[in-house]
Amino acid sequence: MLAMEKEPSSKAVMHNARSALDADVHVGVKVRKARKAMEMSQTELGNELGVSFQQIQKYEKGSNRIGSGRLWEISRVLQVPIDYFFEGIDKNVSSDKSVPWWLLDLARQIESIKDEKLQKQIISLIEACSEKE
C-alpha cells in the first residue's frame, strides 16, 4: 500500500521558495520608487543590469526574488544605499539613519543645475524656509 503524503499547510505554502514573501514585495516596491525617482524606465534599468524589462517588472511586483548581488547592482544604478530597499520593512526597527528617496531625488535635481550660483540660491531659499523663529 502506498503511503499518502500529507498536504502542506497554508503556512508551509506561504514560505515556499517560489511564492512571493512580503519582503520580496516590499523590496520590489522600493525598486520601483527609486527607479521612478531617477526618471528611468524599466527598459533602461534592465539594460543597465543586463536583464529584460519583463524581469524588472517581476522584481518590482515581488514575483521574482532579487538576489543579493543583483540588489547591489540595482542600488548602484539607482544611486541609493542598499539599506534603502529595507526601510520600513519592520515597523519595530528605526530607520532614522537612512535617507528618504525623495530627499536623494531633490539632491540630484539641485546637483543637475549647471549654474553653481543658482544652486547656492536654491539651498539658501530652502534654509531660509526651514529656519525656526
How would you describe this protein?
The protein has 133 residues and is mainly α. The chain has two domains: 17-99, lambda repressor-like DNA-binding domains (434 Repressor (Amino-terminal Domain)), CATH 1.10.260.40; 100-133. It is 56% helix and 0% strand. The chain has seven helices and no strands. The chain is globular, with a radius of gyration of 20 Å. The protein starts with 9 loop residues before the first helix and ends with a helix. Residues 1-19 and 92-96 have low confidence and may be disordered.
Descriptive terms for the model:
mainly alpha; 2 domains; disordered N terminus; 434 Repressor (Amino-terminal Domain); 133 residues; 7 helices; 56% helix
Query: What would CATH call the homologous superfamily of the largest domain?
Result: lambda repressor-like DNA-binding domains
- The level 1 CATH classification of the largest domain is Mainly Alpha
Tell me the number of structural domains: 2
CATH topology of the largest domain: 434 Repressor (Amino-terminal Domain)
Number of β-strand runs: 0
Straight-line N-to-C gap: 84 Å
Helix segment count?
7
The arrangement of helices and strands along the chain is HHHHHHH
The low-pLDDT segments are 1-19, 92-96
Derived structural class: mainly alpha
Q: C-alpha Rg, in Å? A: 20 Å
Layout of helices and strands:
Elements: H1 10-14, H2 22-37, H3 42-49, H4 53-61, H5 68-77, H6 101-111, H7 116-130
How would you briefly describe this protein structure?
Helix content is 56%, strand content 0%. The chain has 133 residues and is mainly alpha-helical.
